[in-house]
Structure formats: structure tokens, C-alpha cells
Amino acid sequence: MKIVVIQGPNLNMLGIREQNIYGAMKLEDIHNQMKAVAEQNGFDIEFFQSNLEGEIVDKIQECLGDADGIIINPAAYTHTSIAIRDALRAVQLPTIEVHISNIAAREEFRKKSLISDICAGTIAGFGPFSYHLGMIGMIQILNEIKMMKEAQAKQNG
Ligand code: DQA
User: Fold this and answer.
1) What mean pLDDT comes out for the span 121-147?
2) How far does the centroid of ligand 1 lie from the alpha carbon of residue 59, in Å?
3) Torsion of CA 141, 53, 17, 35, to 10 degrees
4) Residue of the nearest CA to atom 8 in ligand 1?
5) Quick one: pLDDT band at residue 83, thresholds 50, 70, 90?
6) C-beta atoms surrounding 99 within 10 Å
7) What CATH topology corresponds to 2-156?
């Protein structure tokens, strides 16, 4: 089974941008940690980062038939992008929303996420560790789906 991790604008600047909010870890280090956890649990994983809304929409669409679950931090597009919301609804894959900062405790314009209600769950506020928690959640969801499919296959003989 395959997990695709999608990262929105300015997340390529982690480790440089606003360290007091987003921490000192680089995106590459976060991804290396996620990869290790995915592999330990028998999952394939792919990473994608873009500063462009349309490229993120394209990547979500490509997940159809290719991925089993999506972990996404749409960054600033969380608060503005109906296009990303619509793409997630279109592919209908289990999705976990991740934020490094606690968006509920920041400026008013960050409190509203346009994707929270269509995600299986949201993790926010744990710094770069949010991604690890998101991975654990996704592995749990995919293991449950796998077990259900196996039970169904057994029933059907
Ligand atoms: C963010 C929160 C967003 O409001 C912000 O625009 C980001 C990062 C987070 O991970 O905390 O770029 O998604």
C-alpha cells in the first residue's frame, strides 16, 4: 500500500522560515523520518512539495489509482483553496491534514481550514512532530482497511 505526502507553499523553507513557529527541522529530515516509519510498517511512500496551487491539484488527481492514502499540509492554501478541497473530494482517498503550528491558536485568517471536514483527521500544533503523528494515524487507517479487505476476501472464499 502506498502513502503520498503532499506539502504546500513555503514548506520547502522549513529550517529557515520563522523557526519560532515552525521549528528548526528541514523538510528533508522530516521526510526521512516519515520514510523510516513507513518502511518499518511495510508501506511505500512518496513525497511531493509545490508552491503552486495547480500543481498540488494535479498531484492529488494523480493519486487516484496510484495511492491508498494522502497526508497533506496545504500550508497557506489550507485557508483559501477550494480547488484543493475539490480535488481531495474527487479522489475520495483517506486523507490526514497536518499542520506544524496550532492553526486554531493563531491569526483569525488561519483558524478556518477548507479541508478539515473532508479529512479523516487533523493533526496540528506539535511542531515537526505533527508529521510523525500524522503517519501513525495514516498507518492505523490503512491497516484497518487492509484487515477489512482480507476478512471480506476470506468470506467470499
Ligand atoms: C501551516 C500553517 C499555515 O497557516 C501556514 O500558512 C503554513 C504552515 C502549518 O503547518 O502550521 O505555511 O500549514
Assistant:
1) 97
2) 19
3) 30
4) 75
5) very high
6) 24
7) Rossmann fold (3.40.50)
Q: What confidence tens digit (pLDDT) does each residue in 36-52 have? A: 999 999 999 999 999 99
Question: Amino acid identity, residue 82?
Answer: I
Residues with beta carbon inside 6 Å of ligand 1? 10, 73, 75-76, 78, 99-101, 103, 110
Cell digits for 75? 500550508
Q: Per-domain residue ranges for the chain?
A: 2-156
What mean pLDDT is predicted for residues 133-148? 97
Output the CA torsion 123→125→129→133 (10° steps).
-20
State the pLDDT at residue 142: 98
Contacts of 129 (CB under 8 A, 6+ apart): none
Nearest CA to ligand 1 atom 7: 75
Instruction: Tell me how far the alpha carbon of residue 10 lies from the centroid of ligand 1, in angstroms.
Output: 9
Residue 157: the pLDDT is 80
The C-alpha atoms of residue 121 and residue 100 are separated, in whole angstroms, by 14
